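TL;DR need structure tokens for one chain.
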Amino acid sequence: MKNKFVQAAVRGVFWTYSSFYIGKLMVFISTVILARLLSQSDFGVVSFAMLFIGFLDTINSAGISSALIYYQNDEEATYSAFWLDIVIGAFMVLGTWLAAPFVGEYFDDVRVVDFVRVLSIVFFIDSLEDVPKVLLTRNLSFNVKFIPDTLQSVVKGLTSILFAVLGFGAWSLVIGQISGALVSMVTFWIIVPWRPKLVLSIKWLRSIFAYGGGVVASNILSYILVNIDYLFVGYYLGAASLGVYTIAFRIPELLIVQFCSLVGKVIFPVYAKIKNESDVLNKAFLITMNYVSLVTVPIGLGLMLIAEPFVIAVFTDKWSEAIPVMRAISLYALFLSLGYNANHVYKAQGEISIMTTISTVRAVLLIPALWWATSQFKNIEMVGWIHAVIAFIAGIINLIVASRLLKISPISIFITLRSSIVAGIFMAIVVLGVLHFTVAFSPWIQLFISIVSGAASYAAILSWVQKGVFREAWVTLQSSLSSGKKQTE
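>> reply
TL;DR here they are.
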């Protein structure tokens, strides 16, 4: 059972991760181009619009996707969910269109209104693809889901680059977003044979709202926690500061936070399938924590250390104010990743209230501190460090609660994280030394040497502390992909 879980999880993460980062490579390239073409204020205005749209997206599907995964196979529930999704998507477009002027007034920038209204179209497009997407996720068919996910990201990235080069500026991001969503929706309907029937089950609508409503409440709290800093920075410090903050946040979020989100999309349906097998679920939780930490610990520590040469080399010294913020956000993302896995255990066990309670505690700590940092201290670097400290506290709480729910000893969790922590500390010492001795080099050369030496030192210590880890990972990846291939033949 352990091998079956690992293979299913690794196969899913591989395909999901591959599709995501093929597209994110394009998005990263477009971000670099736009950072050079646009002003800090222009970048901040787009962030205003995306912030509002992202918040509404947490309630767009009303937790329908999570509910369908939790309840597994039931055609009546699936048909009912599809029509409910369509109705919610249409209302979201209308509501967003009407609310757009208030968003512009809040951020004191009328340019936001048009961005928000045009981007609202994505809600309806997404509602059309939600059920076909969830059917592939529920069946762990991530190799098939790879196709629309990759097409969406590539089309979005290429379109954004094309229109940026043509001089459309900030609108290139909006056009790219809508183009990618349309391509994804059409592709899902082509590759998924399922078709809706005009069936509405009151029983299942109630079940979907009961479970999905809890997920939505938790998602709203989580979104506020992740994005309240943008609201405060934009309101109190203006579009230019928000533009700098957005650039500082972009890379840690892309490499760490989004990685955890991708793992979660794979792990949740797997956890849901084994939710009644406590021993298997416990092992799965520890295995996932181990593999996630092996990725996020070196990336988080590494980004914190190389923030200066990275920002100067990639985004130019125009964005040098982002350097200290990026250091803090890298640690925030690292601490967040260590407890991220626990949330999917809560969902799989139907313990949504635990997620909501922990998010509420975090909000009580975070919101007043961020308000003070922006309205009184007026410093975006302080915002980043507050995030890091509270993410550390919340991560500890999350792991303690999860260990009690699963009846896992704290010692087991520490042993699971030990290898990545030891190897990460050694890597950090090596990178600090390299940065010291290459201070006179160009940012690109300093960045290259730091990354190579850091990766080599981390791999060397990890192979010593956790013997056979790379061979085990390679064998697992090969067997997982070959197993996935046989399932599709």
